[in-house]
Each structure stands twice: as C-alpha cells, then as structure tokens.
Amino acid sequence: MNRYKSFYFVLFFTWSSVYTLITLYLNEEIGLSLSTIGLVMSILPLISLVFQPIWGLVSDMKGNKRIVLQGLLIATALLTGAITLITQQFWVIALYYLYQIFLCGQGPLSDAMTIEYVNQATEGSFGFVRTWGSLGYAIGAFFVAWISNRYGLVWLFYIASIGYVLSLFLTFRLDAFKLPRLDKTLKADLSALLKEKKYLFVLVYSFLLIGSFFGSDQYLGLFIRSTGVDLSKLGLITFISVCVEVPLISQSKRLIKRFSATKLLVFMNVIAIIRMLVLSQSTELWQFVLAGVLRGLLVGIFVPLFVELIIEMTPRAVVTSAIAIYSAVSSGIANFIFTLISGFLADYLGYQGLFLTVGIFMLLPLGLAIKMHRKTYSAETIK
C-alpha cells in the first residue's frame, strides 16, 4: 500500500506544479494576451478527448498498464525540461500541447492500476490511496507557488521535470497486473458498456457539472490575480482547498454506503452552485478562501464517487477504457466547450458575471441528479 501512496503523492505534486500556474506563465513570461490564453486552454480538453481513450485502449490491448504509463512519464519529463529552453510563443504552445498529449493518459492509467491493486488487497480503498495524491497536490501547489514567487515562474517546469523522473522510478515498485491481450473481446465489451444506462448517466451528468466547473475554473487564477493577490497566497488557497478534499476522499466508501451515491450527487451539485455564487461576489482574499473550501468539498466527493460508480458497472477487462472515456467526456469535450464559452463570458460579463452564469447553469445537472435520486429511491422501495 505504501508504494502506491508514495507514487500518488509524487505524481500529483508534479501535476500541481504546472496546472496551478501555467496561465500565469503564459501571460507574464511568454506575453500571451488573456484572450489568446483562453483559446490555448480551450484546446487542451480536445487533446484529452482524443488521446485519453487511445491510451486506455492501448493499455487494455497490450495487457500491461505499467509499461504504457512509464512511457508517458518519460515523455512528460523530457517535454517539461524542453519548454524551459525556449521563449518563442509558437514553440512554447506547441510543446505544451505535446506535453498534454502524454499527460492526459496518466490519470486513468494510474487509477486503473490502483483499482486492480485495491481489489486484490485485504485492506484499504481507492479513496484512501487517492488521498495521498490530494496531499501531494496541496503541498505541491503551495511549494511551487512559493518557489516561483522567489525565483521566477520558469521554475514550475524545472520542478515538474524532476517530479516526473521520480514518478517514473516509483512505478517500478508498482504491480504490472499483466492481462491477456483483449483484441477480440474489447469491441464487444465496450459496446455493451456504452449501452449501460447508468454509465451513460455518469457521462451526461459529468459533462454538465464537471465540465462547467473545470471550464470556468480555468479563469479563476487570473481572476484572483487581478484582485492583487500574489503567487504565494494563490498557492495557499489551493493548499487549503485540497486539505478539505483529503478527508472526504479517504472516507469515500463510508460516505457512499451511508448516504448513497445519488444523495451525494445532489449534495455536491448544491455545493458547486453555492461556490459559484460566492465567486460571483468575491473581491477579497477571505472570499476566495471560502470558495476554495467549497471546492475541496466538491472535489473530495466527486473524484472517488464517479470512479467507484464506474467500477461497479464495468467489466474488469475494460475498466481502463471506461475510466478513460469518462475522463475524455468530463475533462475533454465538456471542458473544451465550457472553457471556450467561459472565455467569452469573462470578456463580456467580467469574471464575476462568468461565475454567476455558470452557477445558474448548474441548476440543470442538479435537476438530473434529483430525478435520478428519486428513481433510485423508488426502485429500492419496490424491492
């Protein structure tokens, strides 16, 4: 169990170094305008949409997730190092897109490997292991923001490159879980999966809620920065948010058993709406901290919840592909659409108007969650 916890800690630490500060780097170091940054960031989900399922299929067909993951880690380590050597806008963007191609497969593969391990272990859960990833992300966001504030934003790539190398070494301690090649049955299993109504609900719901959540959040760092908050405090907000997230993820199975998955869907949707309303009125640091706490509540619930739901309804042979498709929909096409729309809303309505509009939109997935809860409750009552 410890080898998986340490791997998640280092990998998420590494992810946070780039994700939390990349928009500031493109703006302050490379000189991209806000509208150009919005366009650049809107393309990233499309990359995930295309390549996440590909990496999932490759690993399922090859029967060895660890080798595929190691290849992705090597590529991202090299690319983050290469970005530090150039300053031309075109090449920075090109390398960052290439980096995203190899990055987008790491999450689904890591989760699938951990799920395989947890299913065979006598103790622990996916949520418990994933907690260490959240801890790494929190500490990484705070540490990288502090370093970048002192030595420059380019350090986020130095730290990321080192982090990917360390993550690579840690993968050799993970179980390979070699499975037979699934070329003949893969298409049939995936076809059956995509006809499963509960799985389709997860895809539609995550498209609406998670897509709008992360799409609008692409502009949160710029919004907070525009109010005069420095990099170290921006990292602190992320740290606080993830600290709230950690205990929820670690207790995910207990929460699902006690309250049911559909109740948790409704609850996290309400939290998401409240957070957007808070951001629509935010002008001071304490308000952004409050929004960060609410973000931690939301992420702490949905990260393990959706994975646990997918595990329950998915044939073991295509778990990686199922998670990859879910990630591609929620973090891919949905993120692309909502990032693009959010950019236009931020231009025309301002940052506060953006978050208010998204909060109103989130009433739609809330209605779907309530309907699903009532349907599930009625079915259980009949039984």
Give a description of the structure.
- This protein has 383 residues and is an all-alpha fold.
- The chain has 17 helices and no strands.
- It has one domain: Up-down Bundle (Growth Hormone, Chain: A), CATH 1.20.1250.
- 85% of the residues lie in helices and 0% in strands.
- The chain is globular and about 50 Å long.
Task: List descriptors.
383 residues; globular; single chain; 0% strand; 17 helices; Growth Hormone, Chain: A; mainly alpha
Please outline the helices and strands.
Layout: H1 2-19, H2 22-29, H3 34-62, H4 65-83, H5 89-103, H6 106-120, H7 126-151, H8 155-171, H9 183-193, H10 197-217, H11 220-226, H12 231-250, H13 252-259, H14 261-279, H15 285-313, H16 319-361, H17 363-382
Helix pairs in contact: 1-7, 1-8, 3-4, 3-5, 3-16, 4-5, 4-6, 4-8, 6-16, 7-12, 10-16, 10-17, 12-15, 13-14, 14-15, 14-16, 14-17
The class by helix and strand makeup works out as mainly alpha
CA-based gyration radius: 20 Å
How far from one another are the termini? Answer: 38 Å
How is the biggest beta sheet arranged? none
- Per CATH, the superfamily is MFS general substrate transporter like domains
Q: Tell me the helix content.
A: over 70%
Quickly count the domains. Answer: 1
The CATH architecture would be Up-down Bundle
How many extended strands? 0
Low-confidence stretches: none
Which series of helices and strands comes N to C? HHHHHHHHHHHHHHHHH
Mean pLDDT: 85
CATH topology: Growth Hormone, Chain: A
How much beta, percentage-wise?
under 5%
